[in-house]
Design brief:
This protein is 50% helix and 0% strand. The protein is an all-alpha fold. The protein has one domain: DNA polymerase, domain 1 (Orthogonal Bundle), CATH 1.10.150.20. The N terminus is likely disordered.
Length: 70
């Protein structure tokens, strides 16, 4: 149950890790859907966001019928 509330609080899947979550929030992203306005390549430039986190975010977006900017 704690995992679900954490996902709701941050708006991001818990599996991306705390460094990635902090990096996204520092860049002004607080909800998963906001990531549709950025390219994967740009996310990878954020300190703390790596390929694993981007992959988890990609899957989470796809589950909602969304994707990163092309």
């Amino acid at each position: 149950m704690k995992q679900e509330s954490k996902t709701i609080e941050t708006g991001f899947p818990k599996g991306i890790g705390k460094p990635a979550t902090r990096a996204l929030e520092a860049a002004g992203y607080t909800q998963l859907e906001e990531l549709t306005s950025i390219r994967e390549k740009e996310l990878l430039k954020l300190h703390g966001v790596g390929p694993k986190a981007v992959g988890i975010l990609r899957v989470a977006l796809e589950e909602k019928g969304r994707s990163f900017m092309s």
